[in-house]
Each structure stands twice: as structure tokens, then as C-alpha cells.
Amino acid sequence: MTPNFIGKPWPETELANALSMEISSGTIRIIPVLDVSHAVFAERYPLMADKLSRSWDAGVGELASMLAERIDHRVDDWHWGIHPQEYIGPVWVRITAAPEQQGEDHVVTILWGDSLFEKTIRVGDTPLSLRHRKLLNDHAPLLIHTSPAAQVTVGEGRAPDKHNLLIDEGWRRIEGSPQTRQ
Fold it and tell me: How far apart are the C-alpha atoms of 130 and 165, rounded to whole Å?
């Protein structure tokens, strides 16, 4: 929630729909991240005044940790992200193991455009950031899979975790992928 969000017709409609689905299903669909004071948020959205929320000022790492703690199940599926086209520099993939799988080996597969990285990595009781560098001004999709399933987040800049691993080596190009087809 930013000052620019509040009062805009399309975002307000999307929020109202998500809140309606949350109320009718009983499943949490909204966790507000506030770039406005909680008082402004509560006044504008009284039905959500008592919802768990966090301030954007906490930073991406803190917010990602909070979300990972609140997710009580992990889905064994591909996660995706896209780094901004114009961004060139350090990037990271953060792996947070489910409580029952902390300290276990996780097979991490990353498909980034036409490049593939796969490695077995032990993920402990704190998140692990896999560091890499984005070298091209491109908009290639980033797909990540972990087995067993884990919480995955991606970002640009310095890795958010003390425990991190450089993964610049070990990537291979996938022949015949959409990125390499003529």
C-alpha cells in the first residue's frame, strides 16, 4: 500500500475482489505491506485494520522471512521471476526450507532463459541465498524448482542472507530452447 495506490480505481477494485475471495473462502489472500502509516491504512480499509501487516521499511529480506514463516505449506512446483530488463548486476535466489526439511539436501534447478543450473544444496534452518550476476540487458524469465519443495524468492543487488553461495559456475546452455531457436 503506497500513497499512489490508495484511491486509484483499478487497484481498489483488485483489492476489493481479493478481500471478497478471502472472506468467502476463509483463506488468507492478502498480507498488506505498507508504505503508509498503519493509521492511514486502517482508516481507508477498516475491514483490514486488524490484519497482519508489515512496513515496507522493514526491507525485502525481513518481508521475505515474515512471509516464509507464515506459509504453512510448500507447493512442489516451479517458481518464477523476471529481473528488470535494464538491470545488470548481482542477483540472488533465496531458498527457505520448510521446518520439517531444514538441514536436508535440496535439488535446486534454475532455468534462466536458455541457461540451466542444477545442484544439490543443503538448506539449514536459515534461508540460503544463491548469488549470480545478470550480465545482459534482457528480459529472460527465471524459473526455479526445489525438491523437496521450499519457499523461493528472487531479487537484485546484494544477497539478503549471511549464508550464501556463489553460483556463477555450473550453468549450461539448453540446445533447442526458445531463446536459441532461429
Answer: 5
